[in-house]
Write a structure and sequence with these properties.
heterodimer, A: alpha/beta, Aspartate Aminotransferase, domain 2, Aspartate Aminotransferase, domain 1, 2 domains, seven-stranded mixed beta sheet, three-stranded antiparallel beta sheet, 12 strands, B: alpha/beta, 3 domains, four-stranded antiparallel beta sheet, 14 helices, 15 strands
Chain lengths: 481, 446
Amino acid sequence: MKLIYEQSVAGRPGVKLPAADVPRAAALPASLLRKEAAGLPEVSEMDVVRHYTNLSRLNFSVDTNFYPLGSCTMKYNAKVLENVAGLFAPYHPMTPLLPTGERFSQGALGLLHELGGWLAEITGMDEVTTQPLAGAHGEMTGIMLIAAYHRAKGNKKKYVVVPDSSHGTNPASAAMVGYEIITVPTAPYGDMDLELFRQAMNDEVAAVMMTCPNTLGLFNPHIKEIADIAHSHGALMYYDGANLNAILGKVRPGDVGFDVIHVNLHKTFGTPHGGGGPGSGPVGVKKSLVPFLPTPRVVKKDDGSYGLETEHPASIGRLANFFGNFGVMVKAFAYMTMLGREGLIQVSEQAVLNANYIMSRLKDLFEVPYDQTCMHECVFSASRQLKQGVHAIDIAKYLIDRGYHPPTVYFPLIVKEAIMIEPTETESKATMDAFIAVMREAAEAAEKDPEALHTAPVSMPVSRLDETKAAREQNVCHMKW
Amino acid sequence: MSDANYCPNTPEEIGEMLAAIGVASVEELFAPIPAALRASSFDLPDGMSEFELFQRMQTLAGRNTQGMINFIGGGYYDHVIPAVVDHLSGRAEFYTAYTPYQPECAQGTLQALFEYQTAICRLTGMEVANASLYDGATALAEAAMMALRVTNRNRLVMDGGVSPFTRQVVRTYLTNLDVEIVEIAPQQGGTDQTAMLAALNEQTAAVLVQNPNFFGTLDDLTGLADAAHAKGALLVASVYPISLGLVQSPGDMGADIAVGDGQSLGNPLSFGGPSFGFIATTKKYIRNLPGRIIGETVDREGRRGYVLTLQAREQHIKRHKATSNICSNQSLCALRGLIFLASIGKQGFTELARLNYDKAEFAKSTLAAVKGVTVVNCGATFNEFTLALPKSADEVVVKLLQSHVAAGVPLAAYYPGMENCLVVTVTEKRTKDEILALARELERAL
């Protein structure tokens, strides 16, 4: 499709602006004045509507396709969430920061406070900050809280320990806070090797970052033991909440030894993923870390009204200009309100059931490197297909031709030719049966006609794209005006 | 199960699935979790229907004061949002997709983000941009870290005219790294050029400025850029995108990295988020950019298409050696920014900036005519300006809030010694009548 810039016609007016009801002011000094207008498109409103409507149709999405992208929890996003978020659109975040301004923002502050309380209950933590703007931002915040805790105690700490199956954001977030990384290999039983972990631990370790269930979709039965070992070295336990959907109402990280957690509202609590964001990554902590939480903090006053604590001596400071991705929190709050206690338990149960169902129906054709009851996602390897020259990516592209968004491939990095499937609780057996049938066809095609898989996809607006050329030419901006 | 909770399977289907797996109950699937690790509590309210939810949310939203007339900014601005922005970004194919890892079935998102990157480059006068960061504050922090990497130095000089919130975010990001941050206090609401230049040395990685700054003052950054470059440092400028319809771009003023908050481009106030951060730089620094970047390429048939590119910078590949830990960004908000810019258009965007400037100038002269009120800014302003009042600005703001006018941001909490100062914001949405009413209320409050 043409770019919007390629549809531009000089002089074509856009949307009408509010009236100029004041006199023209004297021009800015020449040194400050823009010499040439920015090269924005000159198109009609209808051009804009057609262009972006047609562009949207080139996407696969949860609303149009089964989207079992492992680790991303692509569940259905209830439509009413969009409606309720709009109710809060007009409120300015500076209002409660004005003197006496809190009383004009009671609805929004109250929502933040209640949401924080629910998240603390769900995760087994004592207090929550909603400021982090995404999961990785939450991780960084959590590690900063841990760093502040150690600093206050006078602990000399240098390392953060992660299993080799961890999300890339874990080591990246720890590195942003200045820690060196110790990576512990995965044992044949599918989780961080307990013995190697024990050996890796020392008194300079600040934190151990875990995802539980891990990225293989397996729950680590030794988690309490790991936490005890970490704590014996004065290290704190960080819980990556990416996989929280598996354990809602079943396990609370705070009960099993974790000290800090981030939650991905856009995964577990049903808010849309937006083509890559916005997410929201609230962080929950145990009591010992509460003094270090970012400011401003929402507090409930003795009279039952809500206020802001703008400064706290031990706080790590601010992670964002205001209170986090508030609009995303409104949706998550609404989702939790609608589902309630029983509904949220049903979420984890059905998510785990669906993943195990898919695993049971495909494990005869695709290798399962860690063959155990999985939680909310299952990880296969295309190693059997590789013998015919078929890679995980070829299977992914075949699925696209059949109308399925591919699972996550090549992650976790420790599984060769990984195919990571997370169906989520919102998919029906009928949808999964159809997907299973196509996966089985892909396995058959790998045996009989591998070439067909190499040419896939053939039904999309574009076939496989030349990523090397993109990286070499670095054409990231349309320069022709 | 009586309630759907968006879980569609019937008891019969669940039975069939359990049989296929070879277990007797769903609970059996949770057997790998030892009993001792089970949740000790899960005390949450009962659920409710969509209808009841909507009523509850209406009540909650209604506890915020309705109809406040905003002359406050402070980083978030009350601008018009054309109806097409909501409608098009509300296309489920956009908002229920995720990061475009599989380009063949994500060309919609990829092309839109390529168009977005193009718009950011054109607005800022830079050569390359990424596909968004979280917000303007974290974008400045990321830019600072990028400058530290590029120069391999460990010192930053930050203008005190940068938003106090944003300065806090930058400091928080850098607390645990071995970095010295020198802050230069502003003079008369503007950059203290002499002190800034004196603070530059051979260890300085970057100079961080905001234009217009927190007081609304505009500055020609050219001299500062030259001075920074002479010491081998980068100039990082945080800019307010709407101003770029009228004001010289950071690129043309010599900035090496331009960042900012995209809220004003088609994203509602929404109590502070979500918006998006943008970051743009010159070609030579592209490999140091944080976050996703979309690049143009061709498919096997030679057709143009778009992919995530230079991914070897990112956390999912480089892990702890990545340029940033960012994974999810603010894609949908960036898309809103793009649709906003496309629907307003080239001429419209210039007019919009002009409208903000004209209305603010009108407000500035009107309010400065109130007895005892003077303008603090040492130079030109865009759509925000700072007034010195004959009494505490906090008191005045409190008084005007009672008539549901948010008169501005008083500076007592942020700049000691400026207790009588008030930053007033005037966007295109404020009418002449509202401005005149503000002047009357102000007069009464003094």
